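Appendix B, example 12.
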Amino acid sequence: GSRCGEWPKKRTLLLMAETMSGVGHWRLDIASGKVEWSDVVYVIHGVSRDTFDPNLGDALQFYHPEDRDVVKRHIDDAIASRTGFGFQLRLRRPDGEIRHVTSKAVCELGETGEPIALFGLFQDVTEHQARLDRARKSEARYRLLADNAADVITLYDAVGEGCIPHRPSKDSSDTPLTKCRG
């Protein structure tokens, strides 16, 4: 009855949510190696549904060469343990562009408890990763400046004599300012 009529509406809402969030979904049939991708996953990979029909081998080739074994290990471990996985790795599009992606998966079990598929979510997090990298670089520059600030700052007293601040050692009674000589 009415429940069957609700599915097309729910599917439309799911597709709209994927498009807005940039999160796609995928499914790997374990027996056949056949992979199904949502439209968002095709976009992230930089390929078209019309020209690319993914299977596990082809999908793995999109990953950066250093990351392929990691993906394969996650898949194998999830199937063996009947659990899931999550990772953030690098993907190489056909045009050569490197994208940072995150994927989370669960294992779909058959009626007798055997793993029959993995399905999960997939998101391009390249911009987020770039922001994190910029923040880390900025923090490193700030730390370098803050740690070495005393090396470049000269203070002057009321009569115009320069005083160089320095860091007193823990076991000395040095004052934080030393008169300039010369």
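The first strand starts at residue 23 and ends at 29. Helices lie at 2-21, 39-45, 56-61, 68-81, 126-148.
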